[in-house]
Task: inverse folding
C-alpha cells in the first residue's frame, strides 16, 4: 500500500472533521440523498456527497429575535402569575418592562404605582417624569434604555413590596435581565438595590460606588419619588453625582446641567 491510498480509518476521520465543522457553524441536520438502485459492494466505505453540502436554510441561531420571543413568553407568564394573593386581588394588570434588548443601561425600580398599574408600563407617573428628566440630563433618551421593577405588581396603597413578594418575582426578574442583557444597571431606591444585590445595607451606604450583578456593573442611587418637595429634594445633587460616575464608567460624555 502506497502513501496515497486512503484507508477506512482515514475516511472516518475526515467525516468526523466535516461533521465537527458543521456543528461549530450551528448546522444540526443534513439532507439525505435518495438511494439509487446501484449495488454497493460489501465492506466498501462510501460517503454520501450531500454530507459536504450545507443546507440552504440552517436551523435558527440563538439571536436577538429568539430572545425577544422568549421575553414575550416570559411577560405572558408574569401576566398570569398568582403567587402573591394580595397583589393578584389588588392589581389592574402586571407591569413587566419596556425598552430595547442589549441596551447600554437598565433602570430597575421597586414596584409599579397607581399610574403604572393602569397603563401597564413602568415609571410613567410623577416619578417616571422625573426619571425621564434624569435620563435626558445624562444625554440619553428613554427609548434607548430598559426600565423594569423588582416587583411586577402594584402593592396596595403603593407600599413597599415585602420580602416574600420580591422573592416570588425574583425568578422573573433574573430571567428578564438575562434576556435583555444590559451592559450596566442603575437601581432606584433602597428596595430595588437591596433585592437585586441581596444585601441589607441602606441606600446611603450602597450609592456612590459600583456593585456587581452576575458580571454587570450596578450603580445604586435614590428613587426619583424620594426627590420630590416635602421628602428629600436635597438628594438630587447626590443622584447627579451617581449618574456622573455611571456615565464615566460607561465611557459617555458628562453633559453640563
Result:
Amino acid at each position: 500500500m502506497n502513501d496515497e491510498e486512503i484507508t477506512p480509518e482515514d475516511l472516518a476521520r475526515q467525516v468526523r472533521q466535516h461533521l465537527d465543522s458543521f456543528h461549530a457553524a450551528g448546522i444540526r441536520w443534513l439532507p439525505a440523498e435518495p438511494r439509487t438502485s446501484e449495488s454497493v459492494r460489501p465492506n466498501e466505505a462510501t460517503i454520501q456527497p450531500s454530507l459536504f453540502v450545507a443546507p440552504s436554510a440552517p436551523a435558527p441561531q440563538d439571536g436577538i429575535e429568539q430572545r425577544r420571543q422568549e421575553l414575550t413568553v416570559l411577560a405572558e407568564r408574569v401576566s398570569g402569575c398568582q403567587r402573591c394573593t394580595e397583589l393578584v386581588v389588588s392589581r389592574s394588570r402586571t407591569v413587566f418592562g419596556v425598552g430595547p434588548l442589549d441596551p447600554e443601561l437598565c433602570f430597575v425600580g421597586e414596584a409599579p404605582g397607581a399610574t403604572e398599574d393602569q397603563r401597564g408600563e413602568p415609571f410613567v407617573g410623577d416619578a417616571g417624569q422625573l426619571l425621564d428628566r434624569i435620563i435626558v440630563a445624562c444625554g440619553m433618551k428613554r427609548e434607548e434604555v430598559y426600565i423594569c421593577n423588582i416587583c411586577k405588581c402594584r402593592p396596595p396603597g403603593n407600599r413597599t413590596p415585602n420580602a416574600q413578594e420580591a422573592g416570588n418575582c425574583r425568578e422573573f426578574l433574573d430571567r428578564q435581565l438575562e434576556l435583555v442583557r444590559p451592559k450596566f444597571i442603575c437601581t432606584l431606591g433602597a428596595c430595588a438595590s437591596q433585592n437585586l444585590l441581596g444585601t441589607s445595607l441602606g441606600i446611603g451606604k450602597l450609592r456612590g460606588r459600583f456593585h456587581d450583578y452576575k458580571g454587570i456593573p450596578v450603580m445604586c442611587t435614590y428613587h426619583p419619588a424620594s426627590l420630590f418637595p416635602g421628602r428629600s429634594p436635597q438628594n438630587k445633587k447626590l443622584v447627579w453625582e451617581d449618574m456622573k460616575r455611571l456615565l464615566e464608567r460607561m465611557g459617555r460624555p458628562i453633559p453640563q446641567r
